[in-house]
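Side project, low priority. Logging it here so it doesn't get lost.
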Amino acid sequence: MNSIKCLFSIIVLLFAWPFFHCEVIHADQMDSFHKDFLIQRMMIAKIREFRGDVMARPLLVSLTKEAKNIGMKPPKWSHSEPLIENFKYNSRARNKVNTKFKRYNPLIYKASRIYDLPPALIKAVIHAESAFVNGAISRKGAQGLMQLMPGTAEDIGVKNAFDPRANIFGGSKLLRKYLNEFGSLKKSLIAYNAGPEWVRKRKGLPNETRTYIRRVIKYYHSYKRQI
């Protein structure tokens, strides 16, 4: 009788094992999905904070705690100081830029050598895009020092746009790509700011982009004099 019970137990276990195994795999997949979902929610909260939503900071803090509770290390940008949207256009901020860019000089000069770009141009684009604020996020979701859009960052192989090295190298790579394709600095800056289709289809230039080009050229000459 005991032998029959033992045999029956083994058969039940063999039958049930695939279901237990699937449940473990499913749990792992759910864990990965949960982490990705948390990252996305934190990113949305960060953008909302940047746009001035007073409820975004408490939400971000709550999501960061939730991430820590499941053993996940939150991204550095998630607990950085609140961003101020108009920082790069603020006169005080401009006065501080000269001291900020120096910390990125080694990365800028290395990117300059790799992508055959003037260091002054890379500095000018960073200045115009983010005023050297590494955690900057635009209204449209562009991220980091050279303000890479998530889709563009993925296309050029940048996994973390808030990593200064990855961002500067990625932005420089993009500038070189546009310079090779369009053959002029002005067209390359239009492509960088408004998208390459504006150049390819010869659409009318947005006023924002006209202002952007003037600012980059102004900063370029300024940085060029310092080198």
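Brief comment: Confidence is low (pLDDT under 50) at residues 5-30, 83-95.
Revisit when time allows.
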